Amino acid sequence: MYTGFFPPGSVLWDLTQTNKFDAIRETIHQTSTFRAIPGLDLEAFTRAVIKREQEQSTGFGHGIAIAHGRTSQVATSEIALGVSREGIDFQAFDGMPVHLLFIVASHPDRQIDYLRILSCLATLARNELFRQELLACLCQEEVERKVCSAFQGALLRSHC
Question: What is the β-pairing status of strands 78-88 and 98-106?
Fold first, then answer.
């Protein structure tokens, strides 16, 4: 159920877009996470994530955004990460630019899994050391290893 998060290709190391909607599009289309899902309509999923973002910013604060969309075209929840060196204006409550953009896809009937994933990502986002370590990584593979390990650890600790 929760295995396999952040496999190779799930991180976009050099996110170039600075507009939040374009950054969402770039992360969805450039990571292998969503392209690898059989039958997933990338454009429809992108529209769902952007629609959710238009309702209320998912800029969590501390340089993190957790954009998400629900679709019946995924069997299990999937996550990708876009890393922006420049920063993206997500209208976060703290006014800080976003450097770590998580995108979550989940099935509408998997509400508990969805909420648990969002909770774990929010827990990690509040950890300053975690954020600093990800931004200090020197390559995509290092980011994938660190985020995968931290996320799996958060799930196992069951406090999210």
Answer: antiparallel
